[in-house]
Specification:
Strand content: 15-25%
Number of strands: 23
Bound molecules: zinc ion
Shape: globular
Distance between the termini: 32 Å
Number of helices: 16
Structural class: alpha/beta
Largest sheet: 7 strands, mixed
Low-confidence stretches: 411-423
């Protein structure tokens, strides 16, 4: 007797194999059978006539570390068919950290902030807390290099000494023992940016030995893109680590088209090494507003940066650096979330518009906002060419990752009424938060035919699980965990836009996480059956 039986649907199994007619039976948290099961007995039956039955999507790039603790329902993920999220990307993770450097790290990583106390030192302590909130999605944690380096070296711009390198290696090992799946770097973010390639190789040797992955937000995604790709590939080749290039793109107009070259470089490396990249289907990125500032402004940490803004001479230098940046178009930079109630009306507005309102120049406006919000201000900026985005996403080595910064609004009140309803002052978010996976299906499969259904699903599940080394996940196959999504190919589409980003997708009907529906007939069930997946080096 099955607990759940999904009949009459077409299975896209996640391997890249074309769809085939089969019923799927679930017992407990596992897929018990895939085949002709129509006459079998089951406690619950779903008629999936005309629908696809696919493995739950794996979002290889999120920043949900802290917001998962606050919004464990993860509605933005579940509603687009995502059953597993990778956290700790771009060098950003709240652990490991030593107490005396915690508040500085927190201010630095304000994009993942959720207004709760950070009280963890060890990696495993944080995972225990994640487990305790019972997230709706499975979680795969990475160690952020910002935290690792802050723990041992601090926030200064200098090479790590030999004993510090050893200490970071030991700490990395400890984190992997406690469940980390690998390391992420954010080489435009201090203090990760202060590391040399040699440091990254040394740390990744530890990761490689245990079969983990290295995800990198590279040193440049614009003018120095090619050098940055070479550095990432060299890091992987020298250390032997599995490489995942994060949110691959060519940022800013003078660099558009460069991905043609980077894709060739990556392809060549992939002949002998485990190399992939990920992307989201939008031409705008999203990050902390202070990312626009020159790196030197951050030497010593975010509080040093804020002090520099108070110093007349240094403020002027920062301002000049911002103003001399001619490829920056201020009307293409929107302020996303802010920390203060006072500036909440600026959310979703272009810097030019805010500048007019404040009577400041655009560059001055940026500095003013960073100061006023104490660095807790994010942006959405239009920096990519759609042809590049398409070229990257349709490449066979590309996996799908949303790069979503936070899980937005809670579902109120909890837990009885589960209709998603934005809280009145919900922060502005990038539409990728709700739309990444269905947009790939709508845009690249349905509208342009650049990908087949099965190619797209493989990028969202099977290939991703293989990359990460997940056991028994990412495919619709007997004996695998029942992470499943049932969707309607006619109706599936993203609804979130830049104007109205808080809209869940359409056509995603059922989402199972470990055998339990988190979404049923398109509605949240309130079940939270995700697992914090701790890395096991026997992978
Ligand atoms: Zn990043």
């Amino acid at each position: 007797m099955f607990d759940w039986l999904i009949v009459n649907g077409r299975v896209i199994d996640g391997t890249g194999r074309p769809p085939f007619f089969a019923d799927v039976g679930v017992v407990g948290d596992k897929i018990a059978a895939v085949g002709q099961l129509f006459h079998a007995e089951a406690k619950n039956r779903i008629d999936a006539m005309g629908k696809f039955v696919a493995p739950g999507f794996i979002d290889i790039h999120t920043h949900f570390d802290i917001t998962l603790l606050v919004h464990p329902e993860a509605y933005c993920s579940i509603s687009q068919g995502v059953t597993t999220v990778v956290i700790g990307n771009c060098g950003h993770s709240p652990v490991p950290i030593v107490e005396k450097r915690r508040s500085e790290l927190r201010q630095l990583l304000s994009v993942i902030e959720a207004g709760i106390e950070w009280r963890w030192e060890k990696f495993g302590e944080f995972l225990d807390d994640l487990e305790a909130v019972r997230p709706a999605v499975n979680v795969i944690p990475l160690v952020g290099h910002c935290a690792l380096r802050a723990s041992v070296v601090g926030f200064e711009n200098r090479p790590a000494k030999t004993d510090e390198l050893k200490a970071m290696q030991r700490l990395m090992e400890e984190c992997m023992d406690e469940g980390a799946w690998g390391l992420s770097s954010g080489l435009i973010y201090p203090p990760s940016a202060f590391a040399s390639i040699d440091e990254l190789v040394t740390l990744n040797e530890v990761v490689a030995r245990r079969g983990g992955i290295y995800a990198t937000h590279m040193r440049s995604e614009s003018d120095a893109l090619l050098t940055a790709v070479v550095e990432a590939l060299q890091t992987a080749i020298r250390s032997g680590v599995k490489l995942q290039i994060s949110h691959h793109k060519a940022s800013r107009k003078p660099n558009w088209g460069k991905v043609e070259v980077t894709l060739q470089l990556i392809e060549r490396a992939a002949l002998s090494h485990d190399v992939n990249f990920d992307a989201y289907p939008y031409t705008a990125g999203s990050a902390n507003l202070s990312q626009l500032l020159p790196l030197w402004a951050f030497e010593g940490g975010p509080s040093a940066m804020l002090r520099r803004l108070k110093d007349k001479h240094q403020r002027q230098q920062i301002l000049e650096a911002l103003e001399s940046d001619k490829s920056l178009k201020w009307d293409k930079v929107l302020v996303a979330s802010v920390a203060s109630d006072e500036y909440r009306p600026f959310q979703g507005k272009a810097v030019t518009e805010i500048a007019n309102q404040l009577g400041l120049s655009p560059a001055e406006t940026v500095l003013h906002l960073i100061e006023h919000e104490q660095n807790a201000v994010t942006m959405v900026w239009f920096v990519m060419d759609e042809r590049d985005v398409e070229r990257v996403l349709t490449h066979p080595l590309c996996l799908i990752g949303s790069d979503a910064l936070t899980i937005p609004h809670p579902i109120e009140p909890r837990p009885s009424s589960l209709a998603p309803r934005p809280v009145s002052n919900a922060p502005y978010v990038h539409p990728r938060t709700y739309g990444t996976f269905p947009k790939v299906l709508r845009w690249l499969v349905k509208e342009t035919g650049k990908l087949t259904w099965h190619e797209a699903i493989a990028k969202m599940a099977g290939k991703t699980a293989e990359k990460l080394g997940m056991k028994k996940r990412g495919l619709v196959r007997e004996g695998y965990f029942a992470d499943l999504v049932v969707f309607d190919p006619e109706r599936v589409r993203d609804c979130a836009t830049y104007e109205n980003p808080h809209l869940p997708a359409e056509g995603i009907e059922w989402v199972f996480v470990n055998g339990v529906p988190a979404l049923a007939n398109g509605q949240l069930t309130g079940e939270r059956t995700g697992q914090v997946l701790r890395f096991d080096s026997s992978h």
